[in-house]
Amino acid sequence: MEDTLINTIIAVALAFVISLAATPLVRRLAIKIGAMDIPKDNRRMHKVPMPLIGGLAIFISFVVTCILFMGTNMRVSVYIGAAIIVILGIFDDIYDIKAVVKFIVQIIAALTLISDGVLISSITVFGVYVNLGWLSYPLTVFWIVALVNAFNLIDGLDGLSCGMCAICCVSLFAVGIVMGNYNGALPAAILFGSCMGFLPYNFYPAKIFMGDTGAYFLGYIMAVISIEGVFKMSAVISFLLPIIIFALPLFDTAFAFIRRILEGEGPFTPDKKHLHHRLIEAGLSQKQAVGVLYSICAFCGIVAVISTDAILSDLPYMKWVILFAAAAVTIAFDYILSGRRQKSGNKKGKDAKKSDRV
């Protein structure tokens, strides 16, 4: 156990250092090749051109660290599929590829994994083992493509998608360790380190965006980790655990698709009605909106971890105590953020009135 902990800490530290060192280099590359996000509409929150493809640093950090620490425990198809997704992201960041082309390439990346046995072949529904049979193929493709696009669509504020991914990694790692699946948990820890190394450049005010390159890659690897590390567990509700962990990006994406279709628009038509946009419209700053969404994501992770069979199996009532405590802390944190913004707004209003009288 001690060796495992030390190995994990070293892996996380290495991933962090590589990502931290690679990000400035990727930023220069982005500027050189013209991978820039120009604020050409009011949907974008930034006001000046911003370098993209920052996710390339996360990709390099993750792959190098996994090769060193996981060896043959990581399937080669994962690296191949990741390379396909990252190349798609880079071209999309530069040339803005059509949605149908993106879908096709994302499906190809998913099929690359499936051909190597990365499948949601079975699930456990309240203690009942269900073999999915032929349904495992379309379900696996759907899950991978859904997460790839979920992390991309929620990437609307500085540090939001990358930070949420880091929080989800902690949840996936905790679930894997609790259920005794270290090989399935280690990639989550490595990805956490890679994200944390990128975040200093991505927090508001950001110096670089991870772009579609990063959002696609994060969603793709999150899908792989959940398939290999969570869906295959014998937990009572194994099929629900990854859905709970990724609840925020998944439901935000689902609601966005439904909303756009009901309004007679295409599901991928950009708009300014995502949850993070609504928090900004409600008066929160970018940092406060990101903090609120981080806390909700963390709460979902806590729910997933305490829902595993191994946590407090002898004291089931303690799960409810932890759940309510986590909910209370989340609500209090969000209230404090909102309250500070409201006080700041009131103070500005008073100052404006004073200046008017003067």
Question: Could you provide a short overview of the structure?
Answer:
With 358 residues, this protein is mainly alpha-helical. Helix content is 71%, strand content 3%. The chain has 13 helices and 4 strands.
Record the SSE blueprint:
Elements: H1 2-33, E1 36-37, E2 50-51, H2 55-70, H3 76-95, H4 99-114, E3 122-125, E4 128-131, H5 136-153, H6 160-178, H7 182-202, H8 211-231, H9 241-245, H10 247-262, H11 275-281, H12 286-306, H13 316-357
Antiparallel strand pairs: 1-2, 3-4
Helix pairs in contact: 1-2, 1-7, 2-3, 2-7, 2-8, 3-4, 3-8, 4-5, 5-8, 5-10, 6-7, 6-8, 6-12, 7-8, 12-13
Indicate the percent of residues in helices. Answer: over 70%
Q: Tell me the number of strands.
A: 4
- Strand-residue fraction? under 5%
State the shape: globular
Gyration radius over CA: 21 Å
Q: Mind summarizing the main beta sheet?
A: 2 strands, antiparallel
Helix count equals: 13
Going by helix content, strand content and strand pairing, the class is mainly alpha
Which segments are poorly predicted (pLDDT under 50) over 5 or more consecutive residues? 344-358
In whole angstroms, how far apart are the ends? 69 Å
Mean of all residue-level pLDDT scores: 82
Adjacency order of strands in the biggest sheet: 1-2
Order of helices and strands: HEEHHHEEHHHHHHHHH
